[in-house]
Amino acid sequence: MELGIALPTANSPLTSPQNIARLAEEAENLGYSAVWTYERLLYPTAPVAQGGRPPGPLDEVYKVAYDPLETLSYVAARTRNVRLGTSVIDALFHTPVTLARRFATLDQFSNGRVIAGLGQGWMPQEFATSNIPMSRRGAGFDEFIGAMRAVWGPNPVQFDGRFYRIPESILNPKPVQPGGPPILIGALTPAGIRRAARIADGLNPIAVSRQVLEGAVNAFRSAAREAGRDVSALSVMVRVNQKMTAEPMPDDARPFLGGSPEQVAADLAALEALDIDQVFFRTGFAESLDEQVRLLERLQMAVRAVRQ
Question: What's the pTM?
Answer without folding.
Answer: 0.97
